[in-house]
Amino acid sequence: MKKRLWIMLTLIAATVVLSGCTEFKEPISADSKGFWNEFIVWPLVSVIKYFADLLGSYAWGIIIVTIIIRLAILPLMIKQTKSAKQMQEIQPKMEELKKKYASKDQETQQKYQQEMMKLMSESGVNPLAGCLPILVQMPILIGFYHAISRMNATPDAFPLGSFFMFPLAEPSIVLAITAGLIQYIVLFTGPAMNNSNPQMKMMLYIMPLMIIGFGMVLPAALSLYWVIGNLFTFVQNLFIYKPWRKEDK
Question: pTM for the full model?
Protein backbone atom coordinates (compact mmCIF):
# COMPACT_ATOMS: atom_id res chain seq x y z
CA MET A 1 0.00 0.00 0.00
CA LYS A 2 2.87 2.35 0.86
CA LYS A 3 4.44 1.58 -2.53
CA ARG A 4 1.19 2.43 -4.32
CA LEU A 5 0.96 5.69 -2.39
CA TRP A 6 4.45 6.71 -3.46
CA ILE A 7 3.70 5.72 -7.06
CA MET A 8 0.60 7.89 -7.02
CA LEU A 9 2.40 10.88 -5.50
CA THR A 10 5.29 10.47 -7.97
CA LEU A 11 2.88 10.45 -10.91
CA ILE A 12 1.14 13.56 -9.61
CA ALA A 13 4.49 15.30 -9.23
CA ALA A 14 5.44 14.19 -12.75
CA THR A 15 2.21 15.75 -14.03
CA VAL A 16 3.13 19.08 -12.49
CA VAL A 17 6.71 18.94 -13.80
CA LEU A 18 5.73 17.90 -17.32
CA SER A 19 2.97 20.48 -17.50
CA GLY A 20 5.51 23.19 -16.73
CA CYS A 21 8.38 21.96 -18.89
CA THR A 22 6.82 22.01 -22.35
CA GLU A 23 5.20 24.55 -24.64
CA PHE A 24 1.98 24.88 -22.63
CA LYS A 25 1.85 28.66 -23.15
CA GLU A 26 2.30 28.41 -26.93
CA PRO A 27 -0.77 28.84 -29.16
CA ILE A 28 -2.26 25.61 -30.48
CA SER A 29 -3.63 24.99 -33.97
CA ALA A 30 -4.05 22.27 -36.59
CA ASP A 31 -0.57 23.24 -37.87
CA SER A 32 1.17 22.55 -34.55
CA LYS A 33 3.82 19.88 -35.04
CA GLY A 34 5.01 17.04 -32.85
CA PHE A 35 3.45 13.83 -31.59
CA TRP A 36 2.14 15.43 -28.38
CA ASN A 37 0.47 18.28 -30.28
CA GLU A 38 -0.89 16.24 -33.17
CA PHE A 39 -2.23 13.22 -31.32
CA ILE A 40 -3.15 14.45 -27.83
CA VAL A 41 -3.48 18.23 -27.41
CA TRP A 42 -5.01 19.24 -30.75
CA PRO A 43 -7.55 16.36 -30.82
CA LEU A 44 -8.70 17.40 -27.33
CA VAL A 45 -8.94 21.04 -28.41
CA SER A 46 -10.85 20.05 -31.56
CA VAL A 47 -13.41 17.96 -29.66
CA ILE A 48 -13.89 20.65 -27.01
CA LYS A 49 -14.39 23.25 -29.76
CA TYR A 50 -16.83 20.99 -31.63
CA PHE A 51 -19.10 20.63 -28.61
CA ALA A 52 -18.61 24.30 -27.68
CA ASP A 53 -19.88 25.32 -31.13
CA LEU A 54 -22.70 22.79 -30.89
CA LEU A 55 -23.86 23.73 -27.38
CA GLY A 56 -22.99 27.41 -27.36
CA SER A 57 -20.22 27.60 -24.74
CA TYR A 58 -16.78 26.20 -24.01
CA ALA A 59 -17.94 25.31 -20.49
CA TRP A 60 -20.38 22.78 -21.92
CA GLY A 61 -17.73 21.63 -24.38
CA ILE A 62 -15.38 20.87 -21.47
CA ILE A 63 -18.16 19.14 -19.51
CA ILE A 64 -19.13 16.88 -22.43
CA VAL A 65 -15.50 15.99 -23.24
CA THR A 66 -14.85 15.22 -19.55
CA ILE A 67 -17.84 12.85 -19.51
CA ILE A 68 -16.65 11.19 -22.75
CA ILE A 69 -13.15 10.69 -21.28
CA ARG A 70 -14.59 9.25 -18.07
CA LEU A 71 -16.84 6.87 -20.01
CA ALA A 72 -13.85 5.76 -22.12
CA ILE A 73 -11.77 4.86 -19.07
CA LEU A 74 -14.73 3.62 -17.00
CA PRO A 75 -13.79 -0.09 -17.32
CA LEU A 76 -10.30 0.66 -15.95
CA MET A 77 -11.75 2.81 -13.18
CA ILE A 78 -14.19 0.09 -12.15
CA LYS A 79 -11.33 -2.43 -12.12
CA GLN A 80 -9.26 -0.07 -9.95
CA THR A 81 -12.16 0.53 -7.56
CA LYS A 82 -12.96 -3.17 -7.23
CA SER A 83 -9.28 -3.93 -6.62
CA ALA A 84 -9.16 -1.29 -3.88
CA LYS A 85 -12.34 -2.73 -2.36
CA GLN A 86 -10.84 -6.24 -2.35
CA MET A 87 -7.67 -4.90 -0.71
CA GLN A 88 -9.83 -3.27 1.94
CA GLU A 89 -11.72 -6.53 2.57
CA ILE A 90 -8.53 -8.56 3.17
CA GLN A 91 -6.95 -5.83 5.31
CA PRO A 92 -7.65 -7.69 8.62
CA LYS A 93 -5.95 -10.85 7.28
CA MET A 94 -3.00 -8.77 6.09
CA GLU A 95 -2.66 -7.28 9.58
CA GLU A 96 -2.71 -10.79 11.06
CA LEU A 97 0.13 -11.86 8.77
CA LYS A 98 2.07 -8.72 9.65
CA LYS A 99 1.82 -9.57 13.37
CA LYS A 100 2.58 -13.26 12.77
CA TYR A 101 5.78 -12.44 10.88
CA ALA A 102 6.81 -9.42 12.92
CA SER A 103 10.46 -10.48 13.08
CA LYS A 104 12.68 -8.54 10.68
CA ASP A 105 15.14 -11.34 9.87
CA GLN A 106 15.42 -12.28 6.20
CA GLU A 107 13.88 -15.76 6.49
CA THR A 108 10.80 -14.50 8.35
CA GLN A 109 10.31 -11.66 5.89
CA GLN A 110 10.53 -14.07 2.95
CA LYS A 111 7.81 -16.20 4.51
CA TYR A 112 5.76 -13.05 5.12
CA GLN A 113 6.03 -12.03 1.45
CA GLN A 114 5.11 -15.55 0.32
CA GLU A 115 2.07 -15.68 2.59
CA MET A 116 1.04 -12.19 1.51
CA MET A 117 1.23 -13.08 -2.18
CA LYS A 118 -0.68 -16.30 -1.50
CA LEU A 119 -3.41 -14.36 0.31
CA MET A 120 -3.72 -11.87 -2.56
CA SER A 121 -3.77 -14.65 -5.15
CA GLU A 122 -6.48 -16.60 -3.31
CA SER A 123 -8.52 -13.40 -2.87
CA GLY A 124 -8.14 -12.42 -6.52
CA VAL A 125 -6.34 -9.19 -5.64
CA ASN A 126 -3.81 -7.68 -8.04
CA PRO A 127 -1.77 -5.06 -6.12
CA LEU A 128 -0.76 -3.34 -9.38
CA ALA A 129 -4.30 -3.14 -10.78
CA GLY A 130 -4.89 0.18 -9.05
CA CYS A 131 -1.89 1.81 -10.75
CA LEU A 132 -2.97 1.20 -14.36
CA PRO A 133 -5.85 3.72 -14.41
CA ILE A 134 -3.52 6.33 -12.90
CA LEU A 135 -0.94 5.68 -15.63
CA VAL A 136 -3.66 6.00 -18.29
CA GLN A 137 -5.09 9.18 -16.80
CA MET A 138 -1.79 11.05 -16.46
CA PRO A 139 -1.31 11.74 -20.21
CA ILE A 140 -5.00 12.68 -20.46
CA LEU A 141 -4.73 15.08 -17.52
CA ILE A 142 -1.52 16.65 -18.83
CA GLY A 143 -3.05 16.84 -22.32
CA PHE A 144 -6.19 18.46 -20.94
CA TYR A 145 -4.07 20.98 -19.05
CA HIS A 146 -2.14 21.81 -22.22
CA ALA A 147 -5.33 22.04 -24.26
CA ILE A 148 -6.95 24.51 -21.84
CA SER A 149 -3.75 26.53 -21.29
CA ARG A 150 -2.97 26.78 -24.99
CA MET A 151 -6.55 27.60 -25.89
CA ASN A 152 -6.24 30.31 -23.26
CA ALA A 153 -3.07 31.52 -25.04
CA THR A 154 -5.12 32.17 -28.19
CA PRO A 155 -8.31 33.82 -26.81
CA ASP A 156 -9.37 35.17 -30.24
CA ALA A 157 -9.52 31.63 -31.66
CA PHE A 158 -10.83 29.94 -28.48
CA PRO A 159 -12.77 32.35 -26.26
CA LEU A 160 -13.28 30.19 -23.18
CA GLY A 161 -15.91 32.48 -21.72
CA SER A 162 -17.49 31.72 -18.36
CA PHE A 163 -19.24 28.97 -16.42
CA PHE A 164 -22.06 30.80 -14.69
CA MET A 165 -20.15 33.68 -13.03
CA PHE A 166 -16.67 32.09 -13.22
CA PRO A 167 -14.33 33.07 -16.10
CA LEU A 168 -12.80 29.83 -17.33
CA ALA A 169 -9.55 31.46 -18.44
CA GLU A 170 -8.72 32.65 -14.91
CA PRO A 171 -8.22 30.79 -11.61
CA SER A 172 -11.37 30.47 -9.50
CA ILE A 173 -11.10 29.99 -5.75
CA VAL A 174 -14.73 28.86 -5.56
CA LEU A 175 -14.36 26.18 -8.25
CA ALA A 176 -11.00 25.11 -6.79
CA ILE A 177 -12.51 24.61 -3.32
CA THR A 178 -15.53 22.86 -4.86
CA ALA A 179 -13.22 20.48 -6.75
CA GLY A 180 -11.26 19.77 -3.56
CA LEU A 181 -14.39 19.12 -1.49
CA ILE A 182 -15.81 16.75 -4.11
CA GLN A 183 -12.43 14.96 -4.23
CA TYR A 184 -12.67 14.50 -0.45
CA ILE A 185 -16.19 13.06 -0.79
CA VAL A 186 -14.97 10.72 -3.55
CA LEU A 187 -12.16 9.41 -1.33
CA PHE A 188 -14.41 9.22 1.73
CA THR A 189 -16.97 7.10 -0.13
CA GLY A 190 -14.24 4.99 -1.76
CA PRO A 191 -11.29 2.88 -0.57
CA ALA A 192 -10.30 5.31 2.19
CA MET A 193 -13.61 4.79 3.94
CA ASN A 194 -13.20 2.76 7.16
CA ASN A 195 -9.63 1.91 6.13
CA SER A 196 -7.18 1.74 9.03
CA ASN A 197 -4.12 2.08 6.78
CA PRO A 198 -2.42 5.41 7.67
CA GLN A 199 -1.27 5.96 4.06
CA MET A 200 -4.88 5.76 2.83
CA LYS A 201 -5.97 8.12 5.59
CA MET A 202 -3.23 10.50 4.51
CA MET A 203 -4.49 10.51 0.91
CA LEU A 204 -7.94 11.47 2.23
CA TYR A 205 -6.51 14.89 3.11
CA ILE A 206 -3.54 15.33 0.78
CA MET A 207 -5.36 14.89 -2.54
CA PRO A 208 -8.14 17.45 -1.89
CA LEU A 209 -5.60 20.01 -0.65
CA MET A 210 -3.41 19.47 -3.73
CA ILE A 211 -6.39 19.95 -6.07
CA ILE A 212 -7.42 23.12 -4.23
CA GLY A 213 -3.84 24.40 -4.46
CA PHE A 214 -3.58 23.68 -8.19
CA GLY A 215 -7.06 25.11 -8.81
CA MET A 216 -6.12 28.42 -7.24
CA VAL A 217 -3.33 29.03 -9.75
CA LEU A 218 -4.55 27.21 -12.89
CA PRO A 219 -7.40 28.24 -15.22
CA ALA A 220 -10.88 27.57 -13.83
CA ALA A 221 -11.53 25.34 -16.85
CA LEU A 222 -9.29 22.72 -15.21
CA SER A 223 -11.17 23.00 -11.92
CA LEU A 224 -14.36 22.44 -13.89
CA TYR A 225 -12.79 19.30 -15.38
CA TRP A 226 -11.96 18.04 -11.86
CA VAL A 227 -15.46 18.85 -10.57
CA ILE A 228 -17.24 16.96 -13.35
CA GLY A 229 -14.76 14.07 -13.32
CA ASN A 230 -15.03 13.61 -9.56
CA LEU A 231 -18.83 13.79 -9.65
CA PHE A 232 -18.65 10.94 -12.15
CA THR A 233 -16.37 8.96 -9.82
CA PHE A 234 -18.65 9.70 -6.85
CA VAL A 235 -21.62 8.12 -8.63
CA GLN A 236 -19.39 5.15 -9.52
CA ASN A 237 -18.40 4.75 -5.86
CA LEU A 238 -22.06 4.78 -4.79
CA PHE A 239 -22.77 1.80 -7.04
CA ILE A 240 -19.65 -0.19 -6.09
CA TYR A 241 -19.08 0.62 -2.40
CA LYS A 242 -22.72 1.34 -1.40
CA PRO A 243 -21.54 3.46 1.57
CA TRP A 244 -25.05 3.73 3.02
CA ARG A 245 -24.83 0.03 3.94
CA LYS A 246 -21.90 0.75 6.27
CA GLU A 247 -24.33 2.41 8.67
CA ASP A 248 -26.49 -0.70 8.81
CA LYS A 249 -23.65 -2.96 9.96
Answer: 0.73
